[in-house]
Amino acid sequence: MYHKIILAGGNGYLGTVLANYYQSLAEQVIILSRKAAPAKGNITTLVWDGKTEGAWTKALQGADVVINLCGKNVNCRYTERNKQEILLSRVVPTTLLGKVIENLAQPPRLWINVTSATIYRHAEDHPQDEATGEIGEGFSVDICKQWEQSFFNCHTPATRKVALRMGIVLGRSDGVFPRLLNLVKLGMGGKQGNGQQKVGWVHEHDAASITHWLMEHDDLDGAINCTAPNTVSNAELMRIIRKTYGMPFGLPAPAWLLAIGAVVIGTETELILKSRWVAPKRLLDAGYRFQFGNAEAAVGDIIK
């Protein structure tokens, strides 16, 4: 039984997954959120603004792990204002946590910063791993680089640090999957663009389980990819969802139509069309076994 799990910015989808996962494994699960929330058993919420120190800093004392999930949702138009908010909502809380952890008498044993697998280039030729993967270019990649730099620049000699480069988390309640399933239900679940772009995905159970596994493996630090080992193309993922749900057809969405749709719903086509072929080499080499290693099993579990 762990003593204390801290989830900074943990009131979103992945934070809820992690809180529920750790509820039976820890005495306390503490969420740092901008909004107050009632306690749910041993899951409690402390209010912070992600910018300044306050009473919440005491909660980090003696924690088993701090998992930082802070960051404005990138599912928006990349206006100058939104770009600035996306950057600051990641870098500022990360820097603040580093400053607090450095000054604690009993700092957390482990600090996991959930960053993004989109740091790698658009890859349709071969997978990108932690050792040989090539860092990409453009706005999203620049955000990831500054985010990780702010994390690794923090001086926390008594706290092990992992930048967990998270893929697209697939699960029942929120995130990308319910939206893809809705497209399938409407008969619009065909390939998006040319469908060849790779989807670096991970089942929500593995996303949580990997953070737990990292707590037990003290030899791992630095950047670690968090994606399932069997990456699929967008066309293949949509086919699997259609087949599992029982929908015999799905209209495709060409790139030009996606560009129009993205403007209408206030997002960017990059989120759909970038090929994220990312390999979890360090996890596999260290012996982590994925419960959901292939997309058929993951989609089957979610839809059932």
Give an account of the 3D structure.
- The protein is an alpha/beta fold and 304 residues long.
- It has a domain at 2-168 and 201-228: NAD(P)-binding Rossmann-like Domain (Rossmann fold), CATH 3.40.50.720.
- The chain is 36% helix and 17% strand.
- The chain has helices at 13-22, 80-102, 139-152, 176-185, 204-215, 234-245, 255-265, 270-273, 281-285, 295-303, and strands spanning 2-8, 26-33, 43-47, 65-68, 110-116, 160-166, 168-170, 198-199, 201-203, 222-226, 232-233.
- The protein has a seven-stranded parallel β-sheet, with helices on both faces.
- Strand 1, helix 1 and strand 2 (26-33) form a beta-alpha-beta unit.
- Helix 1 (13-22) packs across helix 5 (204-215), helix 4 (176-185) packs across helix 6 (234-245) and helix 6 runs parallel beside helix 10.
- The mean pLDDT is 97.
Write a brief structural summary.
By secondary structure, the chain is an alpha/beta fold.
The counted number of beta strands is 11
CATH superfamily of the domain at 2-168 and 201-228: NAD(P)-binding Rossmann-like Domain
CATH arch. level architecture of the domain at 2-168 and 201-228: 3-Layer(aba) Sandwich
Overall mean pLDDT stands at: 97
Shape: globular
Number of helices: 10
Topology:
Elements: E1 2-8, H1 13-22, E2 26-33, E3 43-47, E4 65-68, H2 80-102, E5 110-116, H3 139-152, E6 160-166, E7 168-170, H4 176-185, E8 198-199, E9 201-203, H5 204-215, E10 222-226, E11 232-233, H6 234-245, H7 255-265, H8 270-273, H9 281-285, H10 295-303
Parallel strand pairs: 1-2, 1-4, 2-3, 4-5, 5-6, 6-10, 7-9
Antiparallel strand pairs: 8-11
